[in-house]
Design goal:
The structure holds two protein chains of two kinds. By secondary structure, chain A is mainly alpha-helical. Chain A contains 26 helices and two strands. The longest helix of chain A has 48 residues. Chain B has a single domain, classed as Helix Hairpins, CATH 1.10.287.3510. Classes of the chains: A mainly alpha, B mainly alpha.
């Protein structure tokens, strides 16, 4: 039975897609209660199918036929190039599909509570379903062309959902910014795809990885392609230099931030690098670019998170930083560790976002942490799950984030990337610090929220808290799937499941080193938490006095390194100004001039011929007569 | 026996009179009558030639023309009546909405 259900794996993306179609067409006429049921139900069925297909694969771990695949129909056939809509379900896709449908389902359920009062409920769930559809297409695609369809599709849904409350100018602008910034990355991504199609002759992932491994592509070409694709990934996954859209994307509804801008879409870049691990591994230069970009992003984004006051923006910078860790993993060749961090991050970051949403919901829309405080006793369910999420992301031992972050850092150290390891460790301290700064500012201390009478702070309904609890359980336990190797070769179930997909890592730390590294990671987490406790509980004046002592540094951080301003000055404004020039001179002068000239010529010709139309019957009759005489004369002669 | 040339000359005279009347007169009813004159001038020419050449097809054509002319008279007169009802005039010089 399991196998026959697993054979239906190609339906996984289609279910949310069909649901989205129904909601887009008939959504306004469906009862509100039904909409959420339908949307969540479709994703739940996908989750069940994914689980069935996963179990089918799990029964055949590390065998060569450890995948399911199905070609639906030929899509592009042009000369020697052909590509099909074809789905491929291997362990890597299985992990991603489970994350997308699992976390996605919980967020759909949560949304039913969070968005219950929104006027455009059917639109919201239609977009959310559509996103799930495209994300699953991206994950299950067996070639890079189809993956690109999903890649662009999730970008579209991201745009639509960031700008969901488009009445707010900030939201509309944020959506546009996300779309435009992603466009820049995608331009490079398309170039990479074209290079692959020309040089490999096929977009199939298997063919690409095989060609990169067999040496039929020149090393320079591999590096070029890998870096072009990685530029696309920096756009989608919000890495330096294209991370600037993600903090603004927080204008969208909070469940959207959790699903798209934390758990799934922004990790698509990591997934892509894992999917093409053969290509990236074949180029040492490209791999080290990936690792360095990841490491620098991890630290810089974490420093920016230190001084943010908007609860969601702290989490946004934290997401950028954590995705940086995933890229470190991929860059140092520990693809399995990078992917593992992707999975655990999906759990604890969506948990944090949803819990933050619960806080915002409780305060009637307040997002500024300076307006919060002392919420611990008001939110008896949200607080503990938030704390679990914060502990997990900080890397406190035995929670999921501890294992995954440690796996990445250990691999970086074992591969000899000491500086990257150091950056990662510094990032871990910062992570723990800003997370607990958030906790202390939000849940402890005096209550700063101005209380509107008749609108008491209230805990969220069960439809929102139950998904939180489930995510919290996963945030605690997910780490057990990827125990460090020092507990035995067979301890890392996650790595073993993915064995056939990735090349084994070149370097392994010896056990004694690994113990030291684990202790260092633990110490850095505790150091961060301790500093936050010191600054925001013990001596609350410290942050202000530090800001006074280092005014330049503080302003730099608050200004987010002025990257937005720099881009504005270097890219946006020159572009706008030159566009204006072109508009004024070429569009108005040449294009409009040519059109207006044509119209004027036709008009004056018409006015000239008009004179013949006197409207008098006699004139026409005379013209007839003359015509007839001419004709007869012509015949006679 | 009257020579057929005489018939043809009469037909030409009638036709030219019809043309001149059509061009000179300014009310629809008279112009309509001028058209009828032209039609019958054509009929006369057909008959004369049919007789002279000893072939019956000219007479057949005339019968058709008479039939069509009867139908055309009905429609034409109805149009003129309607135009008069609408405009209180059938002077063609007043009816020049098609002027460009």
């Amino acid at each position: 039975m399991g196998a026959s259900v697993a054979g239906l794996f190609w339906v996984i993306p289609l279910l949310p897609g069909a649901s989205a179609l129904v909601l887009l067409v008939y959504g306004r006429r469906l009862p509100r209660a039904w909409i959420a049921w339908q949307a969540s139900g479709a994703v739940f069925l996908s989750l069940v199918l994914s689980a069935a297909a996963f179990l089918d694969l799990a029964g055949r771990v590390a065998k060569p036929d450890n995948f399911l695949s199905r070609t639906l129909f030929a899509w592009i056939v042009s000369g020697s190039f052909r590509t099909a809509v074809s789905f491929h379900f291997d362990p890597l896709a299985a992990v991603m599909a489970l994350v997308v449908t699992g976390v996605g389902f919980l967020i759909h359920v949560y949304s039913a509570g969070y968005m219950a009062d929104d006027g455009r409920l059917s639109r919201y769930f239609a977009f959310l379903n559509l996103f799930t559809f495209f994300m699953l297409v991206l994950v299950l695609a067996s070639d890079i062309v189809l993956m690109f369809v999903g890649w662009e599709g999730v970008g579209l849904c991201s745009y639509l959902l960031i700008g969901f409350w488009f009445e707010r100018t900030a939201a509309a602008k944020a959506g546009m910014k996300a779309f435009v910034v992603n466009r820049i990355g995608d331009a490079a991504f398309i170039l990479g795809i074209l290079f692959l199609l020309v040089n490999v002759g096929s977009g199939g992932f298997g063919a690409i990885n095989a060609a990169a491994g067999s040496g039929s592509l020149s090393p320079a070409l591999i590096t070029l392609i890998a870096i072009l694709l990685f530029v696309g990934a920096t756009g989608k996954s919000a890495q330096i230099p294209l991370y600037i859209w993600l903090p603004d994307a927080m204008e969208g509804p909070t469940p959207v931030s959790a699903l798209i801008h934390a758990a799934t879409m922004v990790t698509a870049g990591v997934y892509m690098v894992c999917r093409l691990s053969g290509l990236f591994a074949a180029s040492a230069a490209a791999s080290s670019v990936v690792a360095w970009v990841g490491a620098i992003t991890a630290v810089l984004a974490a420093t920016m998170a230190l001084v943010q006051n908007d609860i969601k923006r702290v989490l946004a910078y934290s997401t950028i930083s954590q995705i940086g860790y995933m890229f470190i993993g991929c860059g140092v060749g520990a693809y399995s560790a990078g992917l593992f961090h992707l999975v655990t991050h999906a759990f604890f970051k969506s948990l944090l976002f949803l819990a933050a949403g619960s806080v915002i919901h409780a305060l009637g829309g307040e997002q500024d942490m300076r307006g919060m405080g002392g919420l611990k006793k008001h939110l008896p369910k949200t607080f503990p799950v938030f704390l679990i999420g914060a502990l997990a992301i900080s890397g406190v031992p035995f929670l999921s984030g501890f294992f995954s972050k440690d796996a990445i850092l250990t691999s970086a150290f074992a591969g000899g990337h000491i500086v990257i390891y150091g950056l990662g460790l510094a990032g871990a301290v910062l992570t723990a610090f800003y997370m607990f700064r958030l906790i202390f500012m939000t849940f402890y201390g005096v209550e700063r929220a101005p209380r509107a009478p008749g609108h008491p702070v209230h805990e969220s309904p069960p439809i929102m808290t139950v998904p939180l609890v489930i995510l919290a359980v996963f945030s605690i336990l997910a780490g057990l799937a990827g125990l460090p190797v020092l507990l035995g070769d067979r301890a890392n179930l996650f790595g073993r499941f993915l064995e056939g997909v990735f090349r084994p890592e070149a370097h392994h730390a010896v056990v004694s080193t690994e113990i030291v590294l684990i202790l260092a990671a633990t110490a850095s987490a505790l150091l961060g938490i301790g500093l936050a406790f010191l600054f925001y509980r013990r001596a609350p004046g410290t942050p202000a006095s530090l800001a006074r002592s280092f005014p330049g540094l503080y302003r730099l951080l608050v200004g987010k390194y002025y990257v937005d301003e720099a881009y504005d000055a270097v890219v946006v404004r020159p572009l706008v100004r030159s566009s204006e020039w072109v508009y004024r001179h070429f569009d108005l002068g040449v294009v409009d001039g040519a059109l207006n000239g044509t119209a004027a010529a036709a008009g004056s010709a018409g006015r000239g011929l008009n004179l013949l139309q006197s409207g008098l019957v006699r004139d026409y009759a005379l013209a007839f007569l003359l015509g007839a005489i001419l004709f007869l004369g012509f015949l006679l002669i | 026996m009257i020579p057929s040339a005489a018939f043809l000359i009469l037909a030409v005279v009638l036709f030219v009179l019809g043309i001149v009347a059509f061009l000179v007169k300014r009310d629809l009813l008279t112009q309509f009558m001028a058209v009828e004159v032209m039609l019958n001038a054509g009929n006369l020419a057909f008959l004369a030639l049919s007789k002279a050449l000893g072939r019956p097809d000219g007479q057949v054509v005339v019968l058709f023309v008479i039939t069509v002319a009867a139908a055309e008279a009905v429609v034409g007169l109805a149009v003129i009546v309607l135009v008069f009802r609408q405009r209180k005039t059938i002077r063609t010089d007043d009816l020049k909405e098609l002027r460009g």
